[in-house]
């Protein structure tokens, strides 16, 4: 009998939050459509899922879902216009998002929290394990994360969450995990407790949950009976804590690579600047402007 857990092919991308940190932009535009250089943030996340072998993507959308659907759909008029002009590069870039994966949509009518958004995916996901990728968390493709998480799940089963060490004064902004070394050794730590946005000074560790999860479908059952927690929202962290306390296997993979929280304005700006600087087509010119700009700022009287 082969006991290796099946390869995960379904990914859920919750994108129904209100995005209040980006108001007024998010009044009519989902924050997931914010450009990071010249691609919307969510396209990087879909590309990451596809690169990890996921071919079936479910987006949980709310109001303002049209731009998301349009971005991953065909745009015949634009394609024809670019074809007529013979602009093959631009045509390729327009078609890339359409051809990435099989993308489905489900609506979360009320933004009742991340846990509730994940529960909206239950009919589509069924009884398979699945991934959750938060659309406002951008992981640099050069720093592997999902593949490490899949390896831990294949070895230890259950659910796996991505963790990142953050400063003590920032941990209250995240879900926080207490961990111990896994008895099996290797990559991955066993999670012993979880707290959503701990009160300052009460966090059990500096390990924050970041937006990548590989979940066993048993999470749906737990989410159905999870009451609203922090902020009156149904929290995914609370459901995972129920699994931990029931002795179910929940492991963490500690990530120390490049990650940008594009739902936060300052981080979003940093991500845009950094990725623009690294681009072959834009980087050299942009970087030399940036150097000049910083020099002038430093010289400017305060
Ligand atoms: P966040 O808390 O970062 O997103 O949720 P938010 O609520 O949209 O942002 P702010 O704090 O008001 O600026 C993490 C992820 O979960 C999704 C969000 O879209 C985001 O990708 N989410 C959150 C949902 O899909 N539904 C919800 O009810 C809440």
UniProtKB/TrEMBL annotation:
Entry keyword Nucleotidyltransferase: yes
Domain (Nucleotidyl transferase): residue spans on this chain: 10-274
Keywords: Nucleotidyltransferase, Transferase
Enzyme class (EC, first level): transferase
GO MF annotation terms: UTP:glucose-1-phosphate uridylyltransferase activity
SUPFAM superfamilies: Nucleotide-diphospho-sugar transferases (SSF53448)
Keyword Transferase included in the entry's annotation: yes
Enzyme Commission code: 2.7.7.9
Catalysed reaction equations from the record: alpha-D-glucose 1-phosphate + UTP + H(+) = UDP-alpha-D-glucose + diphosphate
Similarity annotation: Belongs to the UDPGP type 2 family.
Name of the protein in question: UTP--glucose-1-phosphate uridylyltransferase
Native organism: Streptomyces erythrochromogenes
């Amino acid at each position: 009998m082969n006991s290796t857990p099946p390869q995960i092919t379904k990914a859920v991308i919750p994108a129904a939050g209100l995005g209040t940190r980006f108001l007024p932009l998010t009044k009519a535009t989902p924050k997931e459509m914010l450009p990071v250089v010249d691609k919307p943030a969510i396209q990087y996340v879909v590309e990451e899922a596809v690169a990890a072998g996921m071919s079936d993507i479910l987006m949980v959308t709310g109001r303002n879902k049209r731009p998301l659907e349009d971005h991953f759909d065909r745009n015949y008029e634009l394609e024809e216009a670019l074809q007529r002009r013979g602009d093959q590069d631009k045509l390729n870039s327009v078609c890339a998002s359409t051809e990435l994966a099989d993308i489905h949509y489900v609506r979360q009518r009320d933004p009742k929290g991340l846990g509730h958004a994940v529960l909206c995916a239950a009919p589509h996901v069924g009884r398979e394990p699945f991934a959750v990728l938060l659309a406002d968390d951008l992981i640099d493709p050069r720093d592997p994360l999902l593949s490490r998480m899949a390896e831990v799940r294949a070895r230890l089963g259950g659910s796996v969450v991505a963790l990142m060490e953050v400063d003590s004064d920032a941990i209250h902004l995240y879900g926080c995990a207490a961990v111990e070394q896994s008895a099996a050794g290797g990559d991955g730590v066993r999670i012993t407790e979880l707290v959503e946005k701990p009160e300052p000074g009460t966090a059990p560790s500096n390990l924050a949950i970041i937006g990548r999860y590989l979940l066993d479908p048993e999470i749906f059952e737990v989410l159905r009976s999870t009451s609203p927690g922090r902020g009156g929202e149904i929290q995914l962290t609370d459901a995972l804590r129920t699994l931990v306390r029931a002795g179910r296997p929940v492991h963490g993979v500690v990530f120390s690579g490049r990650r940008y929280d594009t739902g936060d304005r300052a981080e979003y700006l940093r991500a845009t600047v950094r990725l623009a600087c690294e681009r072959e087509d834009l980087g050299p010119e942009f970087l030399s402007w940036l150097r000049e700009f910083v020099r002038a700022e430093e010289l400017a009287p305060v």
